[in-house]
Specification:
Elements (H helix, E strand, L loop, with lengths): L2 H15 L7 H28 L6 H11 L1 H17 L18 H42 L12 H11 L4 H24 L3 H31 L6 H18 L1 H4 L4 H35 L4
């Protein structure tokens, strides 16, 4: 068989095999070109067979034998075989993704901004409770330091005012007790503040809200890009995406400091506060940069 016939046969096989590939715009155009090339080669092979039929002296047969053993012929056959094998595989198109159904609709698309907006308020509340709990713990040290500045009361006196009255009656110096009256007032105010904070259960509320924020926030931080990819087939790198990724890192870092904070590690406590402060700033930036995206979602999506 001649080299041309071999190439034509392999290309015909490739054209037939590619009929079973995935139908998309790219594979359809390739199949159309393969069919045109196959028909042209088939017609050319028919002409060659017709001309090869008249060979009384055997010149064409000898020439075909030389071509079949030539390196160029072998290279042509190898190339045709590779093309046939290559075109037999399905051609996967990246232009269109699967049908995500309801996940691509406006309802699912608006779920992310609504959830993240609520979580932003939750983080503000969690931060406030955290600072209140820190204030409650620090008040004990402040009260103890102020009490050390109050002079010892004389025998028979239960308060500074009683000590002053007793000193005046005895004719002793009461200036130290008089100066300590303002300190005693501060101690009373701080003690009342500490008692008020202790009734708010800020420690447990801060811990519970923080855990809820990290869990739900991480889930919706992943849901947002997935929803975007389902609708558009790609992601859009920018401030909103970068701020969200940084926010999740801050949540993870803050949560990782908790076991060390419970053991009294001040460095971990400072790192926890810093991570949450940075995270709150990134969250505010994400909310601001997400507002234009919400309008685009409403514009390009439909209910449900």
């Amino acid at each position: 068989m001649s080299t041309t016939k071999v190439v034509g046969t392999l290309l015909l096989l490739a054209a037939k095999t590619s009929a079973f590939t995935v139908m998309n715009p790219l594979s359809t155009s390739i199949q159309h070109g393969q069919r045109k090339a196959a028909f042209a080669l088939q017609a050319f092979n028919s002409d060659v067979e017709h001309e090869a039929g008249f060979d009384p002296l055997g010149y064409l047969e000898a020439e075909n034998r030389e071509m079949s053993t030539a390196p160029e012929a072998k290279s042509a056959v190898a190339s045709a075989a590779f093309l046939a094998a290559l075109t037999s595989f399905p051609i996967v198109s990246n232009a269109a993704g699967p049908d995500w159904g309801l996940f691509e609709g406006r309802s699912a698309s608006l779920l992310h901004p609504l959830a993240m907006g609520s979580l932003f308020v939750l983080q503000l509340s969690t931060a406030l409770k955290g600072f209140k709990w820190r204030r409650q713990r620090e008040l004990g040290d402040e009260i103890s330091a102020l009490k050390k500045q109050i002079p010892s009361l004389p025998d028979g006196a239960s308060s500074l005012q009683a000590a002053i009255e007793q000193g005046k009656a005895e004719g002793t110096d009461v200036s130290a007790y008089t100066a300590a009256l303002s300190i005693e007032s501060q101690v009373a105010d701080l003690t009342a503040e500490r008692k008020e904070l202790s009734t708010q259960n800020n420690r447990d509320s801060h811990f519970q809200q923080g855990a809820l924020l990290a869990a739900i926030g991480t889930a919706f931080a992943i849901e947002g890009p997935l929803n975007t990819y389902a609708r558009a087939g790609k992601l859009f790198p920018g401030p909103h995406l970068y701020a969200g990724a940084g926010l999740v890192v801050c949540w993870a870092l803050a949560a990782g400091c908790v076991p060390y904070m419970q053991k009294g590690n001040d460095t971990a406590r400072s790192l926890h506060i810093a991570a949450n402060a940075i995270g709150l700033g990134l969250f505010a930036w994400q909310v601001q940069s997400g507002i234009p995206i919400v309008f685009k979602v409403i514009e390009f999506t439909k209910w449900p």
